[in-house]
């Protein structure tokens, strides 16, 4: 099976880089988050629509830690890496009784194989914004091949009224990742969330075992997670917020083991079919330039 787990990011550092050190003060883990922009910053109606995502980058590779130790808050950086998933334990205090619960949560991070600083000395998020807009086309790129491993494709409506489909992928790594617990640990399990036309197609065409190629971006959102307090005298529920990182395709190529008939039945279902957009007062229409 072809392998691909390629993430390329260009964006601005959010907050400070977090370094975790061992007892001798040697850094063993580096962690940071960055602002990236989704490409196509004009929507179909030609309106300027910036869509930010905040991927988290985590590494225990000494070479990467050395590169990251030079990064300052608000720097513009570029990353090449892979989408990595696992499980971690978070310690959360129950708001009802104060008991500290150990909660196992899934985590998703980008494991870098290259980190470079493009611009330093910026003083704020807004100073980096113009730079982000200029590189929106390459700010957040994900190319991933994997097999659908969830039992079913879950489809529903977002609060904004968009149709979405979501499923989990099993993705094999191309190489051994520094710090992995053992050599058998070489698969990652990102969630994919597709929207509208793509979501409808995915719902009809995909099933457990389908092989797909995702051309998309790293999509981040805060999701609430309900926890039941482990203190027997309490047992009440409380909610913690976790950042979930998934893949959202611009397009998905179905490579193998999918429902081919479903693809032919599906016609594009575009709400806005005017094929127009506006730039600096000029309307571009059906490949014809008209000034209004
Ligand atoms: Zn409690």
Characterise this structure:
The protein has two domains: 4-258, Nucleic acid-binding proteins (OB fold (Dihydrolipoamide Acetyltransferase, E2P)); 268-292, no CATH class. Helices cover 13% and strands 52% of the residues. The protein has 292 residues and is mostly beta strands. The longest helix is centred in the middle third of the chain and has 10 residues, at 125-134. The chain has helices at 62-68, 125-134, 136-139, 196-205, 260-265; strands at 5-21, 27-37, 52-53, 56-59, 76-93, 100-119, 140-148, 154-157, 163-172, 187-188, 191-195, 211-228, 237-256, 276-279, 282-285, 288-291. A hairpin with an 8-residue loop joins strand 12 (211-228) and strand 13 (237-256). Strands 1, 2, 3, 4, 5, 6, 7, 8, 9, 10, 11, 12 and 13 form a 13-stranded antiparallel β-sheet that branches. A three-stranded antiparallel β-sheet has the order 14-15-16, with no helix packed on it. Zinc ion binds at residues 94, 96-97, 99, 229, 231, 234, 236.
């Amino acid at each position: 099976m072809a392998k691909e787990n390629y993430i390329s990011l260009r964006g601005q550092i959010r907050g400070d880089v977090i370094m975790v050190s061992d007892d001798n003060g040697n850094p063993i883990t580096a962690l940071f988050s960055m602002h990236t922009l989704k490409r196509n910053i004009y929507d179909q109606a030609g309106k300027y629509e910036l869509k930010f995502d905040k991927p988290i980058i985590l590494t225990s590779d000494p070479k990467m830690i050395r590169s990251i130790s030079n990064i300052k808050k608000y720097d513009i950086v570029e990353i090449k890496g892979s989408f990595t998933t696992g499980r971690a334990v978070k310690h959360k205090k129950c708001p009802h009784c104060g008991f500290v619960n150990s909660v196992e949560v899934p985590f998703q991070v980008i494991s870098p194989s290259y980190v470079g600083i493009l611009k330093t000395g910026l003083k704020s998020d807004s100073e980096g914004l113009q730079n982000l807009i200029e590189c929106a086309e390459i700010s957040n790129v994900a190319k991933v091949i994997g097999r659908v491993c969830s039992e079913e494709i879950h489809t529903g409506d977002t609060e904004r009224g968009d149709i979405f489909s979501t499923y989990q992928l099993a993705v094999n790594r191309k190489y051994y990742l520094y710090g992995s617990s053992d050599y058998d640990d070489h698969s990652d399990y990102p969630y994919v969330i597709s929207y509208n036309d793509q979501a409808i197609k995915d719902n009809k065409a995909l099933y457990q075992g389908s092989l797909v190629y995702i051309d998309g971006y790293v999509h981040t959102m805060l999701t609430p997670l309900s926890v039941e307090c482990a203190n027997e005298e309490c047992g009440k529920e409380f909610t913690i917020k976790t950042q979930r990182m998934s893949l959202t395709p611009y397009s998905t190529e179905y490579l193998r083991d999918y429902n081919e008939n479903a693809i032919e039945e599906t016609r594009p279902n575009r709400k806005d079919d005017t094929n127009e957009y506006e730039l600096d007062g000029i309307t571009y229409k059906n490949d014809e330039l008209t000034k209004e």
